[in-house]
Amino acid sequence: MEKPSPLGFGLGLRPFYYQDILAKNPRVDWFEVISENFMVPGGRPLAMLERIRSAYPVVMHGVSMSIASTAPLDFDYLRALKSLAGRFQPEWISDHLCWTGVHGVNLHDLLPVPYTFEALDHIVDRIRRVQDFLGRRLAIENVSSYVTFAESEMDEWTFIREMAERADCWLLLDVNNVFVSSFNHSFDQASFIDAIPDDRVVQLHLAGHTEAVTHKIDTHDQPICEEVWSLYHEVCPRFGSISTMIERDDNFPPFDELMAELDRARAIAACTRTPAHEAAA
Amino acid sequence: MKLAELQTRFQAGIVKGDDTILAAIADSRRTDRATLFAVYHDAYRLRLAEFLSTDFPVLRAHLGEEAFGLLVEDYIESAPSRQPNARWYGTRLPDFMQKTAPWRRNRSAIDLARFERALSDAFDAPDAPIGTIDALRNICAEDWPRLAFEFHPSLRLLDLQSGTAQIYAALAEDEEASVIQQGEEAIVFWRNDGQSFYRPLEEDERLALMEAQQSKCFADICALLAFQRNDAGVTQRVAGFLSQWFADGLITRLSLSD
Predict the structure, then answer these.
(1) By the 8 A CB rule, do B50 and B87 touch?
(2) d(CA B167, CA B236)
(3) B127:A105 CB<8 A
């Protein structure tokens, strides 16, 4: 099982920054695109992606696969995803460990999963079917959650580890989501990180969130906070050289501020690299 | 509880405010389950409202915050999203307004919604190479009557209450729009070089464009306009429309009808 080569340090490709990217040809190693934003018949979004793809590697990150839903898999959606991937040749395709709706409704949210054996079997089966259809491994991301279910039978990290092994999929580890969920559910971040199989993780996410006193909400509309930078510092030695990117989806700062955050991520990763990482790289 | 039932209850809690799901959720150390579940309940409405605000900014300015907020609430209540791409959530808003009180009585608002939707639809309609007027040079004089046209897939032609385009233009620039709306106006929408455009059409051009979209040839279009207007100079006028359609980027291909 050979992981895709690390891409370096990337950003989310958002329309707000198209002109900055085209004008500045910035020192970003790769871009992550929201798959659904480009599942349109034609026009500027696809033309922009053509231009940016010609200069940078891309990864496709989806929000509507609904891999944990009990609704039937949406093969119209999967066909559109496969077609987009055929056109833009992403390094990999990712989505979330969540569901987005049942009974034909899409709630446009990353809804939480009960960590039960039934859910595990269900999700593993669906990831395998999607991977067979797409002809490639998926990377599945841990989400921020705000509730836990009374009937959960294992920890989130045990669930994710089992899922990855049984479905033979990659993992996308969202560092901010670990921080947000650990606060909301009062678990130990180290327990989560230590349980994640490093040979499955192909990518890290960094992002900001919103404080709501009794809980934190994953909004991607703030700078990365110091606690998340600290956690990233702790996570880096575990995964060595790994594709890392910053998600920013609202309250957009000047592009240079995102570049400064990306440089900080580069610096943290560099200072936590060990001789073993160098040898592996 | 089976996963399917849990998801059905969770969704009912978000969409309908049904609180039976709370029995399956645990309190956190800091707060109660109802507060935590409300994060999902509230985010659902905020997110859909944001989609609509993004797609209908001028309608929002026209109605004002309070009325637009009520419209958004009504629409979310009656029309949950059924699309994986949020881009399409507002597609049914103009139809919803036409069918639902009190919005169905507000023709100017409905037509602004149709106007903004046409711009959005043109924005990401399928691509097609745009033809140039040079293509006409290869058509010899005797073939002109049989000339037929294919149009860019982004083209939309709407009949709206007169003044809609003027109101749109003013509100889009944050200006007051004082327009007396009487009768109708035809607006054509399309995309060129990644941008959506619109312009009003005079009745003759509207008729010519409608006929041309239905694969009628140059001679048929001229004959129809001549019949309608009893006008001998119609050929030159249709040739003028054709020139403008090429300049706009509306025509993709010429062909000769049988």
Answers:
(1) no
(2) 33
(3) no
Q: Do B40 and A116 touch (CB under 8 A)?
A: no
Whole-number Å distance between alpha carbons of B7 and A71? 10
Question: Which of A34, A37, A100, A106 is the best residue to mutate to test the B interface, defined by the most B CB atoms within 10 Å of its own CB?
Answer: A106
What is the phi/psi pair of residue A75, to 5°?
Answer: -75, -20
State the amino acid at position A176 in one-letter form: N
The Cα–Cα gap between B53 and B9 comes to 29
Least CA distance to A43: which residue of chain B? Answer: B124
Express each pLDDT in A174-198 by its tens digit.
999 999 999 999 999 999 999 999 9
**The residue type at B105:** R
Q: Which residues of B touch A99 (CB under 8 A)?
A: 7
In 3D space, the residue among B74, B12, B22 whose CA is nearest the CA of residue B48 turns out to be B74
Per the CB < 8 A criterion, the answer to whether B75 and B52 are in contact is yes
Provide ipTM, 2 decimals.
0.95
- Which of A65, A63, A66, A67 minimizes the C-alpha distance to A34? A63
* Measured CA angle at A35 (ends B80, B38), to 5 deg: 40
SS3 A215: coil
From the list A35, A34, A30, the residue with the least C-alpha distance to A11 is A30
Is A116 close to B30, i.e. CB distance below 8 A? no
In sequence order, what are the residues at sequence separation of 6 or more whose Cβ sits closer than 8 angstroms to the Cβ of residue B155?
Answer: B122, B188, B189, B190, B213, B250
Q: State the Cα–Cα distance between residues A261 and B20, nearest whole angstrom.
A: 43
Query: d(Cα A69, Cα A99) in Å, to the nearest integer?
Result: 5
Enumerate the β-bridge partners of residue A149. Answer: B25
The dihedrals phi and psi of A10, each to the nearest 5 degrees, come to -125, 175
Contact A47 B31 (CB under 8 A): no
CA-CA distance, B124 to B110, in Å (whole number)? Answer: 22
Question: How far is residue B215's CA from residue B257's CA, in Å, rounded to a whole number?
Answer: 8
Helix (H, G, I), strand (E, B) or coil at A30: strand
pLDDT by position in tens, chain B (length 258): 999 999 999 999 999 999 999 999 999 999 999 999 999 999 999 999 999 999 999 999 999 999 999 999 999 999 899 999 988 999 999 999 999 999 999 999 999 999 999 999 999 999 999 999 998 888 898 999 999 999 999 999 999 999 999 999 999 999 887 777 788 999 999 999 999 999 999 999 999 999 999 999 999 999 999 888 777 789 999 999 999 999 999 999 999 987
Helix (H) or strand (E) holding A51: helix A44-53
Provide the angle, in degrees to the nearest 10, between the axes of the packed helices B33-55 and B3-15: 60
**CA dist A220 → A205, A250, B58, B188 (Å):** 11, 6, 27, 38
Q: Compute the distance between CA of residue A35 and CA of residue B146 in angstroms, rounded to an integer.
A: 44
